[in-house]
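Hello again,

I reread your note about wanting to compare the complex against the isolated chains. To keep things tidy I'm splitting this into two emails, and this first one only covers the full assembly. Below are the input lines as submitted, including protein chains and any nucleic acid or small-molecule components. They are followed by the predicted structure of everything together. The single-chain runs will come separately.
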Amino acid sequence: MKKQTKQQVFLLGVTFAAFFSIAVLFFALYFVARDGLGVISWEFISAMPRQRMTAGGIWPAVAGTVYVSALTMGFAVPLAVFTAIYLNEYASKGWVVRMIRLAIRNLAGVPSIVYGLFGLGLFVSTLRLGHSLLAAALTLAVMALPLIVSASEEALKSIPDSFREGSFALGATRWQTVRYQVLPLAIPGMITGSVLALARIAGETAPIILTGAAYFYPLIPQSVSEQFMALPYHLYILATQHEQVQLVRPLAYGTALVLLMLVLSMSLGAILVRSHVRRKRDW
Amino acid sequence: MKSVHHGFHWTAAKDRLIAVLLLLVALLTVVFLMLILGFLITRSFPALKEVGLWEFLAGSRWMPSSRTPGYGASRMIYGSFMVAAGALALPVPWGLAIAIYISELAPKPVREVLKPALETLAIFPSVVLGFVGLVLLAPWIARVFDLAHGLTALTGVIMLSIMALPTIVSIAEDAIGSVPQEYREASYALGANKMETILQVVIPAARSGITASIMLGFGRAIGETMTLLMVAGNALSLPVTRVWGVPIPDFLRSVRTLTATIAIEGLDVPWGSLHYHALFVIGTILFTFTFVINLLTDWVLHRWRVED
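Full-complex prediction:
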């Protein structure tokens, strides 16, 4: 084969590979939407499940997922943002920082089901929180921590050093610089990063199975010590664990689509805001 | 003058206090990692004392609720590795091709669509992918290979491939993108064309990052739970077939991974029972694998960067 032809084939193959990945994404979306759209109605989203989950809606699962995600973010975001501030604005090179970074990288690599086991051991049994919203949210928060720390650090890193130097030159202390110069500019990036992490956390199943998600609990939790239903776990049950798997298949499609729309609208929103902020930035 | 002096000290003290507080918060990440490790080890200990580590690693009989219980996890370890290794076959070349396209070829507008699309794929809930695999891929696999059901290691491998892809692309793309532009220019100046430059200059220069991306993809695959739980069948048999007397992995059989075992049994297990502690042993084994993969990845990145 001629050198030129070889190159053509190579470049074509590489391009095809890239577009094929988009095709896979859209195919998965289309497939879930095709059979899910017909099921979704206001009633499906807002009603309780009835007749052993073969009829009715998924409202408790929607509410449970919203509650547990919100609680998780409440725990994780402040810790993650302060950690990122320390790492990017305060820390100097040394073994302490190396250790913190190593810990963050390893937390990011821990399998989700191991987080579940950890949550079961620490929050559910040792701290006696039981299978509950609180135990599940704390477990998910530890899991979300590395995601939000790296997103927040990214946001802080994108602020040029000249902003800090200008502030120091005017006599501001480090905290004043961070508080009044760096943070206000970094907040949009931190928010988008947190929303992306939230989208990922909302779709997690493995950690909450062992720490608080209920097979069937047709109530809206009134306190953090109650169990809860969650969309991902509900989908898992409808797809594989229900006694009449074929009968509830349409409900499974509907649940999958609601979960996907929830997660994708969050991530799409975050991605759009991020690119808008990047384009508007004039430094 | 005195009050100004005093005020100055107060601000400095406050600043130092804030620095210490921030450090303490940051150290929480280390505390959490230690807690995870500590819990896994201390909760494993009763089972290790009673059964012995060797039985867990080498034994092949896993029957925790039998009257004569067995705690051999070797088949699950094998299953995890088989599926994770299989899940590299497709995404490594595929992901590498995407990374090359994004950083070397794509026009800016295309890149700005592709990267978010891959990010979206990364955020796809694993339970939804498992569901798609269950209702779409599994029946297809059963038909094509003429099997009783399509819940096989192959089904798991294909779904895992889709999950590992974004991890591999994003890290490989970082590595390829950070190869200095001068390398490419020097290659063109010597008469190489675009393909030769990419394959013989850019890829070798990015090898540490590419290796890291493959290792992290493997780590991701080892730790994946829901997708495999839903599509891989979870049978405890050893998925091996013999070709001319040589045992090779059989991807058309059902397989049970370490992660699926914890998810299946962790829900009903009585706290404090031997079975409960045995699941923590499984968790510790999993944690060890991913921890070692992370350390190796760090080492690969660090070592080769220093060389360059």
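For quick reference: Chain B has a mean pLDDT of 89.

B.
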